From TrEMBL:
The lineage of its organism: Archaea, Candidatus Iainarchaeota, Candidatus Iainarchaeia, Candidatus Iainarchaeales, Candidatus Iainarchaeaceae. This is 2-C-methyl-D-erythritol 2,4-cyclodiphosphate synthase. It comes from Candidatus Iainarchaeum sp. Pfam families: YgbB (PF02542). CDD domains: MECDP_synthase. The keyword DNA damage does not apply. The gene is ispF. Residues 3-157 form the 2-C-methyl-D-erythritol 2,4-cyclodiphosphate synthase domain. Its cofactor is a divalent metal cation. Its EC number is 4.6.1.12.
């Protein structure tokens, strides 16, 4: 049995003086301004969480986490772990995941291999099972104008 889920997440960039660091797929992107959020703002892990929960017929990030309990889950790997535990308890594993990021900045192509490696370790899949594409958005949305990042994730779950 297979299940497919789709998840999204988006965050605006923090202020220049915020000291927030950009984290994507649990990888810190050096020299880049982070995203606003109650956690580290990792749009990839948030979208992945939402995709996994969607495939399981469950609710998304906002149902499980809010401003009152987010400090307990400050790093998004802890958030994703909650979804992975639910997935495993229902007898599923990740088959593969496809991630698309939209944003005018920063240039992320050189970071794709690091993000794939980190995601493959978190999801217990081969790096080739983590597809990542990036689009600039051509200035058509606030993300395409450089105001933040938007992520879509599609996941295939397999019954163990």
């Amino acid at each position: 049995m297979h299940r497919i889920g789709m998840g999204t997440d988006s965050h605006a960039f923090a202020d220049l003086n915020s000291g927030k660091r950009l984290v994507l797929g649990s990888v810190e992107i050096p020299g880049e301004i982070g995203l606003v959020g109650d956690s580290d703002g990792d749009v990839i892990l948030h979208a992945a969480f939402n995709a996994i929960m969607s495939a399981l017929g469950e609710q998304g990030l906002g149902f499980y986490f809010n401003k009152n309990n987010m400090d307990k889950y400050g790093h998004s790997t802890a958030i994703l772990e909650v979804g992975l535990e639910k997935m495993h308890s229902l007898g599923f594993r990740v088959g593969n995941i496809s991630i698309t990021l939209e944003g005018k900045k920063p240039r992320l192509q050189k970071h794709i291999p690091s993000i794939q490696e980190a995601m493959s370790a978190l999801l217990h899949v081969l790096p080739a099972c983590v597809g990542i594409t990036i689009t600039s958005g051509d200035g058509l949305t606030s993300f395409g104008k450089g105001e933040g990042l938007y992520c879509q994730a599609v996941v295939l779950l397999e019954k163990i």
